[in-house]
């Protein structure tokens, strides 16, 4: 069984969408990645930090989903990272209402000995120096995937570029790819980003799907057209967790297999947005994932009569 | 060989993009549809109108591409419909600089006797009353496809709804689908539009591809990721021409076959945008189309290891 190491936030979120609002609920990139990857038979472990206010039931939830929490530091007297946001009516854009770093401000990640030999490493979205520190602690992983966002490009670009230079795959959204590369065309943007380090570039386009680039090869996975998106929070992390979870499960990091990996990522993300927060991911079954995989096939597979 | 009847504008366009500008060149919905459909072995005929200023070389070009022009009225002393537009830097939006209806203002379409029995009818984007008149002149076609736009929703909605009620397939873009249905979710929008008449709804999302809806079935065709889009003019018409051209060529109007038809539509549209106006479509070869079909396969087809 492959080992998958995940670094990222474990947090409280308070979310408002046109369909309702929540109090503080379970959130954070590592949480979504871990829950998503738990749909595959892999040995996941999270490196993160929370405060003493973090409920035991949330820790239990992660463990119940086969996410090892040895590397999840609980800071005595500390408060857990908190994010609050409000989505606009189209659900494609949102305003951040509040961000309280709390224990995340001084976080020094410690990779547990048991997972320093992880073959797969997922650097979830947080400070590039934390991501770098994790990279320094692992031994010769088979595949490192980086997720990041425009905030780090704006504020810590130099550190971010050091991480980018050391990863195999980067996942960012279309606007971020344009910002990072200075190219409007996503084909050109991906090529420039490959020159920065990653051999594979995944560009997420939200409801418009995701593109996978590698040299002159390209693959596209659509998002499943949904009647209603309820809450997009965590969709990108869930996508990343499905992507690396599938790769870790199959142990195959070929471009062909990455095609299926981003289909699985889209598949899992399509569930995530159906309810608030992690709610839907907590009840998700393998049967449901398999059925939806068939929907993705019907959505994209074709045979012409003119061959 | 199936007969394909096309009604739409045949026009002069003057186009400005970030890459350059043209004088008056050949344009119009029926022109693009006809050139696109000419990639399939079908008997196409255009119903349209031009002025005496329309060059013989353009008429010859249509005939050379197996588009019958018996139904293309040339108005003595009249001037051809003229459209001029300027694209913004992202090429997704444009300003109309000039529209001169000219001979189009009083156009009364006459379907030639030789094509009243056309099995396939493409109602290209123009006034709904012209589209209705063509529908009244054809005998029991096998499939009618309608292309329209927000201009007719804003100005002639009542007439447009009469056309919509009588067609089998409608192709519109995402914003137009939302406007027509009052639904933001494209899944819901498509369902509402099906209730207005069309059994199949094609929603075009430009660089984000196209969706085909029919009852509870859905198919997605991506746009080919291109390094550079040179001029988007006519891409939607070329898409429609490829869609109906493929259906007319195969004679099969099942949902499964429509999947391939929208892949062919996307395929042909991906060529159209590579040069100004109809320039690329004039030199396009079957080999190039087949090669790009392989690119679409590589872009979308996948096999998982977990089945």
TrEMBL record, chains A, B:
GO cellular component, one term: cytosol
Pfam families linked to this entry: PfkB
Ranges for domain Carbohydrate kinase PfkB: 21-280
Keywords per UniProt: Kinase, Transferase
Signal peptide (from-to): none
GO molecular function per UniProt: kinase activity
The protein, known as: Sugar kinase
């Amino acid at each position: 069984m492959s080992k998958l190491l995940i670094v990222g936030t474990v947090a409280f979120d308070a979310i408002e969408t046109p369909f309702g609002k929540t109090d503080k609920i379970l959130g954070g990139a590592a949480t979504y990645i871990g829950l998503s990857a738990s749909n595959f038979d892999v040995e996941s472990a999270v490196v993160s930090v929370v405060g003493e206010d973090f409920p035991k039931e949330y820790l239990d939830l992660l463990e119940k989903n086969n996410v090892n929490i040895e590397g999840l530091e609980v800071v005595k007297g500390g408060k857990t990272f908190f994010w609050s946001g409000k989505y606009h009516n189209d659900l494609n854009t949102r305003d951040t209402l509040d961000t309280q770093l709390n224990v995340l401000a001084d976080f020094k990640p410690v990779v547990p000995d048991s997972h320093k030999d992880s073959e797969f490493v997922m650097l979830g979205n947080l400070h590039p120096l934390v991501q770098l520190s994790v990279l320094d602690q692992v031994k010769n992983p088979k595949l490192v995937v980086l997720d990041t966002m425009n905030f780090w490009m704006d504020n810590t670009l130099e550190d971010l570029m050091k991480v980018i230079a050391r990863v195999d795959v980067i996942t960012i959204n279309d606007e971020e790819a344009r910002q990072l590369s200075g190219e409007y065309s996503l084909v050109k943007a991906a090529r420039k980003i490959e020159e920065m380090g990653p051999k594979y570039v995944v560009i997420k386009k939200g409801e418009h799907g995701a593109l996978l680039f590698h040299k002159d090869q390209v693959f596209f996975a659509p998002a499943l057209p949904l009647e209603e998106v309820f809450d997009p929070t965590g969709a990108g992390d869930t996508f990343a967790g499905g992507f690396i979870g599938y790769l870790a499960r199959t142990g195959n990091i070929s471009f062909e297999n990455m095609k299926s990996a981003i289909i699985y990522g889209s598949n899992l993300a399509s569930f995530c947005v159906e309810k608030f927060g992690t709610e839907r991911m907590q009840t998700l079954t393998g049967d449901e994932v398999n059925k939806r995989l068939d929907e993705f096939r019907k959505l994209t597979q074709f045979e012409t009569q003119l061959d």
